[in-house]
Design brief:
The chain is an alpha/beta fold. About 45% of the residues lie in helices and about 15% in strands. Helix 26 links the parallel strand 16 (about 580-585) and strand 17 (about 620-630). The protein is globular. The chain binds adenosine-5'-triphosphate and magnesium ion (MG). Magnesium ion binds next to helix 2.
Length: about 700
């Protein structure tokens, strides 16, 4: 490369440049020198992710082999986006050869995804079967439930925690690396009496997973962190990478920190970036301590770079967001400023109810589009995935295409799961959750028969033969034979990937027609699944990646929209992390929604909800509207049980912050119904004064 052509650095401000160039000295031409640890801690929109992308480009430009860079992002989508950013920067500044290097950044993805890859590679060394399959949350809950029943937990006492709660407790213990009793006392006090039973249940759960060669999400991190902690293995994996870069570090948990320390014990080559004010995953045991304590983990301590200029939002949006976060009880203070001035404050829009909210948002989105702002530059954000229901209906009626992030995933639908279970069972015949699911598709096969068949398969060296030899009841005979044949084919690799999937689809279609009323739509989904499958090199990789990070649900029944089509983004706030749009709408700015709990939230939980609103607001570049429905039912827990009440404006925007916002009502019909709780109160006060005046 021509070192003089480094004008891609010219765009950066001084602090960004410090971070990008940290320890990289083009003059020294010594690629073996790797700098000490680096932390970039800075507010939203200050260019953290951008700085990370520039650093990767800079490393490539200075001769670092892309295969020796490990890039850890929050989602697979973020990893893809990062590679694209690097490619773009490299292309503009350094030309095609440099851009081509970016496609060599093979080691980029989530901790879970990268973990799965490393574990598979090292499986034999750590006593795992290299053909292990991965359980998603639903599979894990199914397995947990199976064991709950086997152990008679729920029959002994009806109050025993439900399968989902059991799994959450288990997951928390693993991810936070805390004793069970501590987790019960602090997070699940109402389950604290079940300590001994839960401990035994979890032991049985772990044993079942091992016997079946399955790993759940938590295992991917847990096994990986244990692997890294073995010095010889940690070093062996760590040596493959000269540089390890992590985005959104504030949302990592104890296990993820252990993995990083195992990879890079002295921190050399390690760079993490994040914002403590945006930490929103403590419910998954993420801890903001990771980022706050990062510098002192190393000796000498990590270099810290802070960024202060926000390049994303207008000053008015920033003022409002800063005001919201400034009321937080604890934070690492940052002063963000922007050069992007605007006369327009963010708005608080009062509407009657959710139906009006949906109509309002659609109307505004269309107005924006009329004015030249494509749908893709707009997004609607909400606290919980099911909050977008009425809007989705309205969008569909008005023919506005949209993609939903963080919602019910395409892969969570029953028919897609059926097909994937067949593939998974073929990949790993010990996987009982997959096996049960598949066998019970066959008419005449119930749990008992399936259980016996799975035992026979697990006991045999040749799973295909064992399945063929198994005698189900007479009613299932023919279907069983057909399935056994399919299974043997898949086991033997008789078809090349992704033809495997077509073969499964053909076998499955008659069962699908039996099982579902809306079969045509579901068949279309399966065709879509085949398209998705063709972009993966193997069945194993397809299953791993899809289980870990499924594609997003879409409005289009055929699945993922074409890249150059224009569509609106609907997203939970959690899934909107790290992204930005010109216009952002936040739904249900109501207490009981943000924060999601009216009265029961602990102070820590309430603080996390405040940060969540901050994350939502800071996604906006030019326009931000928070919609507040007047009639939005929220649940209030009282001594006499749950009560449904109308919510009022979120407590995170108290009256003192109102000057930061422009308030309006929709539809505008002055003089009729009062439009906000405050106004309603004023009405009443005035009336009282009038009476007093005359009386
Ligand atoms: P978040 O905390 O939300 O993840 P971030 O700190 O990662 O935000 P980025 O997404 O990297 O911020 O950057 C925000 C926007 O600012 C992007 O559009 C980016 O291109 C732009 N940007 C970053 N640095 C600069 C710069 N030096 N000059 C101009 N634009 C910049
Ligand atoms: Mg970012």
């Amino acid at each position: 490369f021509d070192a003089a052509a480094h004008d891609y650095l010219a765009r950066l401000n001084a602090q960004q440049r410090t971070a990008v160039e940290h320890g990289v000295d083009p003059a020294a031409k010594n690629p073996f020198h790797i700098a000490g640890p680096l932390l970039v801690i800075a507010g939203a929109g200050s260019g953290k992710t951008d700085t990370l992308a520039h650093r990767v480009t800079h490393l490539l430009a200075n001769g670092v082999d892309p295969r020796r860079i490990l890039l850890l992002t929050f989602s697979r989508r973020a990893a893809t986006e990062m590679r694209r950013r690097v490619e773009r920067i490299a292309w503009r500044a350094l030309g095609a050869d440099a851009a081509a290097l970016a496609s060599g950044l093979n080691w980029s993805g989530t901790f879970h995804g990268i973990g799965a890859r490393l574990l598979r590679e090292c499986a034999v060394q750590i006593g795992l079967s290299p053909t292990f399959t991965i359980h998603d949350r639903e599979d894990s809950a199914d397995l947990m439930n199976l064991i709950r029943h086997e152990r008679g937990c729920s029959t002994k006492d009806q109050r025993f925690p439900l399968k989902g709660t059991c799994l959450s407790i288990y997951s928390r213990v693993v991810n936070a690396q805390l004793p069970l009793q501590t987790v019960l006392d602090t997070v699940y006090p109402w389950c604290a009496n079940w300590h001994d039973e839960l401990r035994a249940l979890f032991a049985a759960y772990v044993e079942a997973k091992q016997k079946q060669d399955v790993l759940d999400y938590d295992d991917l991190l847990l096994y990986c962190s244990h692997m890294m902690a073995v010095p010889a293995l940690g070093a062996q994996v760590g040596e493959r990478f000269d540089h390890v870069l992590v985005d959104e570090y504030q949302d990592t948990n104890a296990l993820q920190a252990t993995i990083l320390r195992g990879l890079k014990p002295d921190g050399r080559g390690l760079m993490v970036v994040g914002d403590d004010a945006q930490s929103i995953y403590s419910f998954r045991a993420a801890t903001v301590r990771n980022i706050l304590d990062f510098p002192s983990h190393f000796d000498p301590p990590a270099r810290i770079v802070t960024l202060e200029q926000n390049y994303r939002s207008t000053q008015a949006i920033l003022d409002a967001s800063n005001a919201v976060i400034s009321l937080a009880t604890e934070r690492y203070t940052k002063n963000l400023w922007s050069e992007r001035s605007s006369a327009q404050r963010p708005s608080l829009i009062h509407v009657k109810d959710e139906a009006d909210q949906a109509r309002y948002v659609c109307a505004r989105i269309l107005e924006h589009r009329e004015a030249g702002l494509p749908l893709k530059s707009q997004a609607v954000l909400f606290r919980a995935s099911d909050h977008s229901g009425p809007l989705e209906v309205e969008l569909t009626v008005r023919n506005i295409p949209f993609v939903k992030f963080g919602g019910l995933k395409f892969l969570d639908t029953a028919h897609v799961k059926d097909v994937l279970a067949v593939l998974r069972f073929a990949e790993n015949p010990r996987d009982r959750v997959a096996g049960f699911r598949v066998m019970q598709l066959l008419p005449g096969v119930g749990p008992v028969t399936a259980g016996r068949a799975l035992d026979a398969v697990a006991a045999s060296e040749d799973a295909g033969a064992a399945l063929r030899a198994f005698a189900p009841g007479a009613r299932a005979f023919e279907d069983w034979a057909a399935f056994a044949e399919l299974f043997a084919d898949l086991r033997a690799g008789a078809h090349r990937w992704p033809a495997d999937l077509d073969r499964v689809r053909v076998w499955y279609e008659p069962h699908l027609l039996q099982k579902f009323d809306d079969a045509p739509m579901r068949i279309a989904d399966l065709v879509q699944l085949t398209h998705i499958a063709s972009s993966y090199p193997s069945r194993e990789q397809f299953l791993t990646e899809l289980t870990l990070d499924p594609p997003d649900a879409t409005s289009d029944e055929s699945g993922v929209p074409l890249r150059d089509e224009d569509y609106l983004i609907l997203s939970t706030i959690h899934s909107a992390k790290g992204q930005e749009w010109n216009a952002v709408f936040v739904l249900n700015g109501v207490d009981g929604c943000i924060p999601s709990d009216l009265a029961t939230g602990s102070p820590d939980e309430i603080e996390e909800e405040r940060r969540l609103l901050y994350v939502a607001m800071t996604r906006a570049k030019d326009e931000l509207e928070i919609v507040v429905p007047q009639r939005f039912y929220v649940t209030q827990q009282t001594a006499h049980g749950d009560r449904h009440v109308y919510g009022s404006r979120t407590r995170f925007i108290p009256n003192s912050l109102l000057p930061r916002f422009a308030s309006a009502s929709w539809p505008r019909d002055p003089g009729t119904t009062p439009t906000s709780p405050e106004q309603a109160r004023v009405h009443i006060d005035l009336a009282a004064q009038m009476r007093k005046m005359w009386g």
